[in-house]
Each structure stands twice: as C-alpha cells, then as structure tokens.
Amino acid sequence: MTVKTKEEIKQMERVCKLAAQTLYHTAKFVRPGITTDELDKITHDFTLSNGAVPSPLGYHGYPKSVCTSVNHVICHGVPGPEVLKEGDIINIDVTCFLDGFHGDTSATFFVGEVSERAKRVTEVARRAMEKGIEAITPFGTTGDIGFAIGKYVTKSGFYAVEEIGGHGIGRQFHEDPFVPSFGKKGRGDRLLPGGTITVEPMVNETAATLVEHAIPGSSVKWYTTSDKTLSAQFEHTVLITEAGPEILTGY
Ligand code: MF3
Ligand code: CO
Ligand code: CO
Asked: Domain containing 234 — which CATH number?
C-alpha cells in the first residue's frame, strides 16, 4: 500500500468528503419512478459542479459516472432506462477524482417501503462494513478486516461475497492491497499508518453463486446473484492512523 504524506492525506480528505456529499445528494432523488440513468446524470452534474470528475466514467471503458446496483445486482450495476419501483433496494456507488486523488463510497437505499428481508440484508451489510473498519489497527493486516466481516455476516445468517472486495485507493482508483470479506486474523497484507483503503463488503441473502455480466466496450464486469435473491453493500474510504481507523467518507 502507498503511504501518504500529510498534504496527500489532506487531499484524500477533500475528495472523500466530496464523494460522500455527492452520494447523499444523489440519494435524495431515490424514489419510485426515477430511472437509474437520471441518478447517473444527477451524480455526474453534481460532481462536475464541485470541480471534480466522476472516476467511473471511462474507467477501463465503463460508460457511466456512477454504479447503481438494484436488488439482486451485487455491484457495478450500470445506469440505464430501468425505473425504480416501490420495494426495491439500490446501492449507489460514487467515486470522485479531485486534485489527483480518488475518494470512493457507497450505500444501499430503500425505494419507498421495503420488505423485512430487504431491511435485514441492508442492515447486516452496513454493520459488516462497520465491523471491518473497527478491525483496522496500525500494522494489522487485511486478514483482520476480512475475518471480522466474514464472522459477523455468517453469524447473522447471511453470505459475504468472497470474489470481490475493497482495495487500496489514492492516486489510483484501485490500488493494492485487496481487502477481503473473509480470512484469518494476521494474514494478508500489512496495514500501514498513512495508507488509505476501502472497506466495502457485499452481503447476499443466500449462498447462491455470483454471475458475471459483460459491459459492452468495457473490461469492467457487473455481477448478480444466480438465484436473483437480494444483495446489499456499503463502502467507506478509510485512513489508517497510528491511533486506528479514520473514516474519510463520513457524512
Ligand atoms: N466504485 C467501485 C468500487 O468500489 C468500482 C467501480 S469500477 C466502475 O471499487 F468502473 F464500475 F466504475
Ligand atoms: Co471501492
Ligand atoms: Co465504490
């Protein structure tokens, strides 16, 4: 992982704050009847009006400015003409690029009133992210994070996605290390003070496998649960300090 200077950390704080503001600005528009393309435009315009660039746009050919993952979409859902309806859950994943640095954050939102099971999978995903962040210590490891997430999700009766996870972040959108949602304490890569990573567990209702889908013109894939059951996710960008984790994308 790359260790940031004080000045670089200030820049990370700035872009991460903007990413959080962008996420909650876009989320205000979530309601039955809106399309994910409209949410994309809202994210795009807000980001530009704040002097930043949406990191997803053109990233390995990704065609949109945000990821919108509805119901059984695990992640990287591509905005389009899909109309949100009452009872849906939607993860909105915002990444901004400002002054040479990326800030990445996502949350799952309810469209109107949702089922008890939708509430439950969403709550477990949020708590899983928090558990993962709480497991961060200076000179700890990525395995500490994965262990905490995996243990909590399993205990809760849900399934953490193992194939995809968090990542280092900074001058690049995705940097080393991989931040898993499973693992063993003390294994994996070392967490260094001054490093910045994302913690972004994806939580599924069942043990269903993940199905990979192509995006035309892009090497990025989007993913769904094979049995169409729900998947929820939350993501923060976190700074590792001598004193422990510091959430940079808080709102
Ligand atoms: N924001 C996603 C993440 O959390 C990555 C999206 S890549 C894109 O890592 F190309 F789909 F935007
Ligand atoms: Co991320
Ligand atoms: Co993200």
From this structure: 3.90.230.10
Ligand in closest contact with the CA of 56: 1
- Tell me, yes or no, whether 1 lies in a domain: no
Is residue 142 in a domain?
Answer: yes
Measured in Å, residue 200 CA sits from the centre of ligand 2 at 7
The model's pTM: 0.98
Q: How long is the chain?
A: 251
Per-residue pLDDT of the chain (251 residues; tens, 9 = 90+): 999 999 999 999 999 999 999 999 999 999 999 999 999 999 999 999 999 999 999 999 999 999 999 999 999 999 999 999 999 999 999 999 999 999 999 999 999 999 999 999 999 999 999 999 999 999 999 999 999 999 999 999 999 999 999 999 999 999 999 999 999 999 999 999 999 999 999 999 999 999 999 999 999 999 999 999 999 999 999 999 999 999 999 98
220 Cβ below 6 A of ligand 1: yes
* CB of 40 closer than 6 angstroms to any ligand 1 atom: no
Q: How many CA atoms lie within 13 A of 250 on its CB side?
A: 8
148 Cβ neighbours under 8 A, 6+ residues apart: 131, 132, 134, 135
* CA separation for the pair 156, 45 (Å, rounded): 39
145 lies in which domain range?
6-247
Q: Which atom of ligand 1 is nearest to the CA of 174?
A: 9
In the chain, the number of structural domains is: 1
